[in-house]
Design a protein that fits this description.
- The model has no long low-confidence stretch (mean pLDDT about 95).
- This protein has 13 helices and 20 strands.
- A hairpin with a 2-residue loop joins β16 (about 295-300) and β17.
- With about 425 residues, the chain is α/β, with parallel strands linked by helices.
- Helices cover about 30% and strands about 25% of the residues.
- The protein is globular.
- The chain has helices spanning about 15-25, 60-65, 65-70, 80-85, 90-95, 100-115, 115-125, 145-150, 155-160, 170-175, 200-215, 320-335, 380-395; strands spanning about 5-10, 30, 50, 75-80, 135, 140-145, 165-170, 185-190, 195, 215-220, 225-230, 230-235, 240-250, 270-280, 290, 295-300, 305-315, 345-350, 360, 370-375.
C-alpha cells in the first residue's frame, strides 16, 4: 500500500491549492517542498485575480517590435539576445505563436479556463478563512497616449467577445477613481469582476494551514526524481523516498529539473518578472492599476505599494537585470509622481511554455504522474481551478470543462 494517495511537488499557489483541494475531497495527501509555502514566485506577483487576462504575451505586435525588444531598455517586454541564441527552438516556437491565428486560439483557451477561476479559488478562500485578504474593487487599465488607447481597442473587443466584462471610463472618471495617478490619461477601462489579494504569500500560507488542519502532511525536502512503478509512484527526495498512488509536479519554472517528471522533456521556459516595494506608499492607489504603455501594475498591499510586472525572457540562472528594476522605478514615477527609494526589490521566475498556456494533465506516457505548471502570469488567478482539475483527474473524473488545450503532450509549434 502506498504511503499517500497523492504527492504534490511544489508549495507555490498551484501546488498548495491542489493539495488543499485533494485533502478536502478526503484523500491522503503529502506536499513536498523545502521552501516555505508561497515564498517563491507566488509571493511576488501583481496580487490580482485577473479573470480578464486572456490576451497572451504571444501577440502579433511582438513580431514587428522584435528588434526593439532585443536592443531597447524602455519597453515592458525584453528578450535576452544571449538567451535567445542559446535556445533558438524555444524562441522560434514562441514567435510562431505570436501570429494572429495562434494568438487568437490561445486567448480563447485562456478565456475558457479563466471563466472558472473564481469557482476554483472561492472554496479554498472559504476553507482557509482568508476572506479578509481579498479586496473586490475591480482593476483599472489606463493608457497615456491616444495611440496606446486606440491600439488596445482590438484586444478589448476580443476580450468582450470571449465573455470578459469591462466598462469604458472617461479620463475624468479614472482620475476621480484614482486621484494618485499623475499620468495624462487618454483612455481608461474598468474590469469590475477582478479582485486583488492584500498579501499573496499570506494567502498561500492560509491555504497551507487549512491543508494541515484537514490532515495533510508536509515534507520540507527537495525532490530529486519521480518514477512510476506499477500502480504507484516513488518520489525520491534528499531525505529518502515516499510512495503515492499518484504524483503532481507543480514546481513552477523548476519542474524541468525533476528527473522522471516528464517536465524535462517539455519546452518549459521563464518569463522573469520584477517588482519594487515601497513600504509607506500603499495609499497611492486603491486597487490594481495597470498602465498599458508601461506594462506594469501599481498595487496597494498590506505591506505597501508594489510596482510589479514587465516580462524578461531569460534563463533561470541569469543574474537579476538592474535595468528592469530601474525601468520600474522610472516609469513608476511617471505614473504616480516622485517616489522614495524602494524598500525592497524582487526577481521571480514565471514558468512559461512557448504558447503561454499551462500544462495541466497527465505527463505524456503516464497515467500516474500529473503536471500542473506553466501558468506564466496567471498562477495566482488559476491556482485554484488548476487544483480542482488535477484532483478530478487524479480521481479518474472528467473535469467539467474542456482542458484539451492544456494537454502536456500537445504540439508547441
Amino acid at each position: 500500500m502506498s504511503d499517500y494517495d497523492l504527492a504534490v511537488i511544489g508549495a507555490g499557489v498551484v501546488g498548495v491549492s491542489t493539495a488543499l483541494w485533494a485533502v478536502m475531497r478526503g484523500h491522503r495527501v503529502v506536499l513536498i517542498d523545502p521552501a516555505a509555502p508561497g515564498s517563491g514566485t507566488s509571493s511576488g506577483n501583481a496580487c490580482t485575480i485577473a479573470t480578464y487576462a486572456c490576451l497572451p504575451v504571444n501577440d502579433p505586435s511582438v513580431l514587428s517590435g522584435l528588434p526593439g525588444l532585443l536592443l531597447g531598455s524602455n519597453t515592458p517586454l525584453s528578450v535576452s539576445w544571449g538567451h535567445a541564441l542559446r535556445h533558438p527552438l524555444w524562441m522560434l516556437r514562441f514567435l510562431a505563436n505570436c501570429r494572429a491565428k495562434p494568438s487568437s486560439r490561445i486567448a480563447a483557451a485562456l478565456a475558457g479556463v479563466l471563466a472558472h477561476a473564481d469557482a476554483g479559488l472561492n472554496p479554498l478562500i472559504e476553507a482557509a478563512r482568508a476572506g479578509d485578504l481579498v479586496v473586490a474593487r475591480g482593476q483599472i487599465s489606463v493608457w497615456s497616449t491616444r495611440a496606446g488607447g486606440q491600439g488596445a481597442e482590438a484586444g478589448l473587443i476580443r476580450r468582450r467577445d470571449l465573455g470578459v466584462s469591462w466598462q469604458e471610463m472617461t479620463p475624468e472618471q479614472a482620475q476621480e477613481a484614482e486621484p494618485g495617478l499623475r499620468l495624462s490619461i487618454a483612455r481608461a477601462v474598468h474590469f469590475p469582476d477582478a479582485r486583488h489579494i492584500r498579501d499573496p504569500e499570506a494567502l498561500v500560507g492560509r491555504f497551507h494551514a487549512a491543508f494541515l488542519a484537514k490532515g495533510g502532511a508536509h515534507l520540507s525536502q527537495r525532490v530529486q526524481s519521480v518514477a512510476q512503478q506499477g500502480e504507484g509512484v516513488v518520489v525520491s527526495t534528499d531525505a529518502g523516498a515516499v510512495t503515492s498512488r499518484r504524483a503532481v509536479v507543480a514546481a513552477g519554472a523548476f519542474s524541468g529539473r525533476i528527473a522522471g517528471s516528464g517536465a524535462e522533456n517539455l519546452p518549459l521556459g521563464t518569463e522573469r518578472g520584477y517588482h519594487l516595494m515601497f513600504r509607506d506608499e500603499a495609499a497611492r492607489v486603491t486597487r490594481p492599476v495597470g498602465w498599458g504603455e508601461g506594462g506594469f501594475y501599481a498595487v496597494p498591499m498590506a505591506r505597501g505599494l508594489r510596482l510589479a510586472g514587465t516580462v524578461e525572457i531569460a534563463g533561470l540562472d541569469a543574474p537579476a537585470n538592474a535595468g528592469r528594476l530601474a525601468y520600474l522605478k522610472r516609469r513608476g514615477q511617471e505614473m504616480l509622481g516622485p517616489l522614495p527609494d524602494p524598500d525592497s526589490s524582487w526577481l521571480g521566475f514565471r514558468p512559461t511554455l512557448p504558447d503561454s498556456l499551462p500544462a495541466i494533465g497527465f505527463a505524456p506516457g503516464s497515467d500516474r504522474i500529473l503536471q500542473a505548471f506553466g501558468h506564466q502570469h496567471l498562477g495566482l488567478t488559476l491556482g485554484g481551478i488548476t487544483g480542482r482539475i488535477i484532483t478530478d483527474l487524479a480521481e479518474g473524473r472528467q473535469p467539467n470543462q474542456d482542458i484539451a488545450a492544456f494537454d502536456p503532450g500537445r504540439a508547441f509549434s
